[in-house]
Amino acid sequence: METILQGKATTVRIGPDLPAVLIGERINPTGKKTLAAALTACDLAPVKELAQTQVACGAAVLDVNVGAAGVDEVSLLPRAVAAVAETVDVPICVDTADPAALKAALAVCPGKPLVNSVTGERARMEAVLPLVAERGAAVIGLVMDDSGIPSTPASRLEAARRILARATELGIPREDVIFDPLVLTVGADAQAARVALETIRLLRQELDANVTCGASNVSFGMPDRPLLNQIFLAMALACGVNCPISDPSHFCDAILASDVLLGKDDYGMRYIHACRARAAR
Amino acid sequence: METILQGKATTVRIGPDLPAVLIGERINPTGKKTLAAALTACDLAPVKELAQTQVACGAAVLDVNVGAAGVDEVSLLPRAVAAVAETVDVPICVDTADPAALKAALAVCPGKPLVNSVTGERARMEAVLPLVAERGAAVIGLVMDDSGIPSTPASRLEAARRILARATELGIPREDVIFDPLVLTVGADAQAARVALETIRLLRQELDANVTCGASNVSFGMPDRPLLNQIFLAMALACGVNCPISDPSHFCDAILASDVLLGKDDYGMRYIHACRARAAR
User: Fold this and answer.
1) Cα(A131)–Cα(A134) distance, integer angstroms
2) Can you tell me the ipTM of this complex?
3) CB B145 within 8 A of CB B167
4) Is B187 near chain A, with CB under 8 Å?
5) Best A186, A195, A231 residue to mutate vs chain B (most B CBs within 10 Å)
6) Which of A44, A165, A218, B131 is most buried (CB neighbours < 10 A)?
């Protein structure tokens, strides 16, 4: 099942037999003081720069999140989305918890964007999914519901089924619902990563869905986080994640290596090309 | 299903819910000119040194292979095994293609060793498995047979079933047969790693077997081999490998990180301890 996204001038296909699509995560002020300050001052220059550098490093889609204290997202998110669309051609993943900001951003976003995110919570589905349906966008479903984040893979799959059922009722095609297994921190729960990996397998097997996930939550509070993140990302890709959301400057090579190993890069041509480009820099 | 190995003074348990057991691969002259020259001169000092350094880096079992041009394995392999057993306490994996050398080495090896390896080839099974049965050892089965290395995971599983059937006929307990999925080179066959990963899943699901594999074959001829090897190792562990054979100085941290992510290292205590020990060095 293929999800097709469109940017201003590029089309991106996400599917189980296609090379992984990297969604660049860096346009997000969480934990980034300088970016948060710029956004509060409505300065979009750093957003444009992050758009360019991430695409140069291999991002095929860009997540755009401007949520920070003191930011009016309804006003700023559409401007940030427009600034990214002005700067690069790739599809945009509109990332906000505010339905009004989502609506305003979708109105100015070119092509066919991705929406990050909906959950299986009743109120959230009713606020987000109609906007997704109306705009003809794709959406990321976080596998949680009104009782919170389920602790078992089977119950996370149930939350995914609930989101999928409501989405299809509203006319959103099945292939336009991508799922995120929700990766919690192994430092707080030793089974957190294992549950996420098993959830990824179920989402692929039972729903034939495309699956995203972030790799960095998993390692909070642990030493050598880059090692843990990279190993987790490799495991997640082997279990079926095909559009990871991560920092392209850190993880693009690992994702390209994973494509080689999963038989998605014949003769390793993309990988070899990237290694040569890196050596030439 | 647990495989139990014994060294001179340590017992090692291999099982699906236990931390991964690293089999150190470095006592092997293939591609190592200095070691090959020492072995040809019957000098076992480098073997003892490799035994110590690998155990210090986290190897729980040591592979011992002395196969090189000009080496009389029947004479040298027992001496090498004895030298390793003198130096360290861990179980030994006796690695040879020569049944006479295997017999001689098993006679001097302490505890309950592992034998590397048998295949599903009729002649090889009849030469190796009776020695394994008589000695009460465990054995690694390479999933190939008289027609060569099967190209599909399902036919590799058939080769494994054939080995298991003959082993149990000879009185070897099921749990003492560990399988190796055979990892070929992605540079020669784009599906090589994918077939190995799927074979690992089948060996775990269908036979409940413990599974070893090497990580370095996969990347021959490709750029940035350490990255490819590490990503492949992570994927293999996520698919069910639980006693990888590799170089502990390169891969011990990745294996410990994998244990954390697969829920086999509560609170990450072993991982955190290893990171601290590394920082203190």
Assistant:
1) 5
2) 0.94
3) no
4) yes
5) A231
6) A218
